[in-house]
Amino acid sequence: MPDERKKILEVHHLKQYFNVGKKDEVRAVDDVSFDIYEGETFGLVGESGSGKTTAGRAIIHLYEPTDGQIIFDGKDVSKLHTKKEMHEFRREIQMIFQDPYASLNPRMKVKDIVAEGIDIHGLAKDDADRTKQVEDLLETVGLNKDHSSRYPHEFSGGQRQRIGIARALAVEPKFIIADEPISALDVSIQAQVVNLMKELQVKQNLTYLFIAHDLSMVKYISDRIGVMHYGKILEIGPADEVYNHPLHAYTKSLISAVPVPDPEFERNRKQVPYDESREMDDKKRRMVEIAPGHYVRASEDEVPMYTQRAVDAGLVTEFSE
Amino acid sequence: MENPENVIEVRDLEINFHTYAGEVKAIRDVSFDLHKGETLAIVGESGSGKSVTTRSLMGLLAPNAEIKKGSIMFHGEDIIKKSEKDMQHIRGKDIAMIFQDPMTSLDPTMRIGMQIAEPLMKHKGLKKKEAIAQALEMLKLVGITNPEGRINDYPYQFSGGMRQRIVIAIALVCYPEVLIADEPTTALDVTIQAQILDLMKDLQNRIDTSIIFITHDLGVVAGMADRVAVMYAGKIVEYGTVDEIFFNPQHPYTWGLINSMPTLDTASGSLQAIPGTPPDLLDPPVGDAFAARSDYAMKIDTEKEPPFFKVSDTHYAATWLLHPDAPKVTPPAEIVRRQKKFAAMQKPAAPFAKTASKE
To answer: Which of A85, A194, B22, B112 has the most crowded Cβ, counting Cβ within 10 A?
Structure first.
């Protein structure tokens, strides 16, 4: 069934190295492949330093990838040479940032922040149209149109994140990369922003790449999840499946570390340790589809073990290959 | 001290901040006790006053803060009345603090061994050599690998999780009676967070410290706390044992907080966000400060401030819903589910909770 949907983004063997060839070479993203289907939310989780943010930035082409291919809406991103093509690409993909305090220019009024993309891409007919568009956007994200002549410091963290969302929506993108959009917000406000993002997704047919370390929130918002560690994706699958039946040992360990707001559960918590050395044995590994739509990075000799786990979890019957 | 089991007793505390816009009433009549050896979690949104409360225990309030009223009793003496010089003897020795951001709470120009040894030399009068030797023991205790090789390193040579271990080592090196941890794991990854929380629990058992744990992460609270106080708009609105707060909450704000967290089994759909934003404490609302955001607000909530109603010997909540004349309301579904669980937990009687916590 998933194959019938349209892929909006294809990432093939993306590599993003820094300081290539030097002693301090960093392989921030190392051979990462995944697809994102139109209209879905793909959650990318991992600890700090796992490369999830770098992956997001490489997709929007803020870096020149070391190797690999990024295909957005059928076009190879690295082959967008003219300014016009790049312009159009950047209109279709927008980003929402983590820190609502640092990502809004403190010297610009809200209306100018929101309209910056509209101006750059010439999306407004005249001044009145520009004002109307900004006011509509503010309303869409749950702010008052009177707010448009204020400055960012006059808003709370949650309101600022709404301004950031309005700015991203201003150029009518198809695809939004949200890099830890709620980490800096209070719990009660986090739910407001997540609900807003979900609502907008349905209304405007948006596709999200949701990058975060808060696994419970990622699971809640995402259709599918990719788990990153040391620059590699170790497991990809439907959100519920990855959560309830993780196949890779790292995913198991990560999920076991998430604190749950239930004292009884916490008293009986058993944290699963993860032995990193297993990844370092220089065996050749690739993403293998263990259960339908559920991939694990595995070497050939590990495949039977993962298949057995999937069988035990009831994800596949023994006979299907 | 009213009760010898209490390490700290805070009574009727009121703190205002003088700002250009007027007086911000940050803490509005807060009272609580810290029992010996327990972990008390204070939860609430930013601006609810949880950090201000604990900073007042350390005598670390900003210059524009004014303590209008109240007392903070520690060892039979009122901390508020102490001079800065006296506070310097208490701070770091009897009451220590761990801050949120391990990147900024260490001195970047000082070797970590020296930073851990410093309080020993200041408070206990140890010679440098002895102090460094104890610092080394402390580094081992908080789980820094190869402590001998790293004692002369600088903070930038450590990862965030390791830095927070060093901050904990500094805070605990004098074996303080009270440890205040202000969002100690918020800046860390979940796996590192789990390690640091385990470390804190382990060290608490070893050196018998009482901990005040400030956080907005209810998951962390569920794992760490013995008792929980919920703060909103400068007041404590509900307090009780961790089971009482998580399984039998009474205040609509506590309901809202628990309800807005996705648990691992939350089905997709809409999260129950708390609408609106916290009130402006320049001009705090009359009555129950949460009324404007509450689905359960009654007329009296906007007229008169609710007193604490007793739910059990250890559980109190300031909401008019508990008044005998209040109409019966049905809490959100998630809360009803939790209250059912609570009722089931009560049946095997008290010893259950004790044995469970030991494992």
So the answer is: B112
